[in-house]
Write the structure tokens for this entry.
Amino acid sequence: MSATDISKDAKDSGLAAKDPAKRSRALLIVATVFVLAAVIWFLLWFFVLSRRETTDNAYVGGNQVALSSQVSGTVVAILTDDTQHVEAGQVLVKLDGTDADVRLRQTSSALAQAVRQVRQQTDTVTSADATVAAREVDLRKAQADLKRHLPLVAAQAESPETVQHMRDAVAQAQAALDTAKAQANASRAAIEGVDIADNPTVQQARANFRAAWIAAQRNTIVAPVTGYVAQRSVQLGSSITPGQQLMTIVPLHNLWIDANFKENQLRHIRIGQPVKISTDIYGGSVEYHGKVIGLGAGTGSVFSLLPAQNATGNWIKVVQRVPVRIALDNDELDKHPLRVGLSTDVTVDITNDQGPVLAAAPQQPPAETSVYDRVAAQADAEAEKIISANLGK
């Protein structure tokens, strides 16, 4: 064996003696890394992940107001189109109003005639009262004549036939007075207790005119809410019927998020908890802030068109989801508008889980419009004009 081989064997033996120490240090380093990773993961879960619930099964929701006609007719004008902004009360569609105008003229004339008829009845009552007064005078005169001639009969200065004629005259005057009073009462029954404007005949004619006026106004179909037009299906010349959908109006101001959380994520979700939302439309650069306003009354499968029948056939458990309604900040929506149906990622802060699970009764209506109240008020004003014009004052 050469000196070179001996030196090489000695070197290998020295390295072999050092390998266990290196391996121990390596194992210690690896173990330390794993422990640190576990500690970091625990701290991350305890301070961050355990205090929030997230899901990407969340979509923008909003009201979709289906615009329809309340009367039948033929479309003669369309004043808006898809994607356009409309204001509440703005005229969107017009129908041919020929038939409605004819009906309106008829009821207007009927209302004027009813007012004049009640005026005539009032004058008739006045005339009947005058007739009653005249008949009372006739009766008193006949009674006075009979009273003067009765002593003459006793003194045989007047014939019994003359006195009998006077008695007959008194009876005739009394009958005439009774007839006049009956006629006056009959005339008074139609107008007694109310003035001309509140007379039942006038009120009936007024109601017919009001219905005709409103029907004529409904030939112009207005927007019930402010929003954007979508799904316009109405066309010029179309014959439409009441209830037929013409287009949809989507208000983009008061939107919300429907986040479908798994049932095991709902344990700590409560009403009023803050929420952070990001959307794909802005690439995550815009963050919205909202709050939980309610949890759905059932899972999505319960309200589906064909609910699952788990009591029949083979059954496989499927994790269910419950929609959680999240309100958005309208100021943020005005700066960065969203559209109904967009997908979002939501993160609910569940640090405070002491809030209610069930929503309380709403303090105000979720939605309302006053555009149709104006029509009724205008109809009443037009009816008042017709009544005033025919009162003859």
